[in-house]
């Protein structure tokens, strides 16, 4: 089996955010033959504007995102919930990945969404909005790989999510399901 590459996009720009820690923990669970890499630079991408989305002169940060996702086999989104929806930075990335319409870098890519918040809602609104946006953009939603974390500020306050045995088990299974969908092959944990 060739190396399966998954790109993880984190919806929080804060370096020590729980979203980032969950993405790091998920990346550490990649099965043999797979790699999950956190995409850096999502905050550098300008807001989507069709006036600047011109072949040959797309802003470098947006083109780098498109290139990274186009070269991947799948996408992992980790989203907190801001004011009842997904963060603008993550929605913006999806917008850039959706273009050109019908042929964007996200088109046909398997995508899993992990969500969490400090509330008992577990960022389900942000999750639903991310799933809707990705689906419209042409990504293939892998529902079996989705995870929701409630009160994650409390749950992971004492340590990194990779130190939480239950979270590691859940993330391992989630990543395995996504990698299987992305590779079209069975993988071993």
How would you portray this structure in words?
- One of its GO terms (molecular function) is oxidoreductase activity.
- InterPro entries: Flavoprotein-like_sf, FMN_Rdtase-like_dom, NAD(P)H-dep_reductase.
- This is NAD(P)H-dependent oxidoreductase.
- It comes from Nocardia rhamnosiphila.
- By secondary structure, the chain is an alpha/beta fold.
- The protein is 36% helix and 16% strand.
- It has helices at 18-27, 60-70, 88-97, 124-137, 152-155, 165-183, and strands spanning 4-10, 34-38, 74-79, 110-116, 140-141, 147-149.
- Strands 1, 2, 3, 4, 5 and 6 form a six-stranded parallel β-sheet that branches.
- The model has no long low-confidence stretch (mean pLDDT 94).
Task: List the keywords.
189 residues, alpha/beta, six-stranded parallel sheet, 6 helices, 6 strands, 16% strand, oxidoreductase activity, oxidoreductase, NAD(P)H-dep_reductase, FMN_Rdtase-like_dom, EC 1.-.-.-
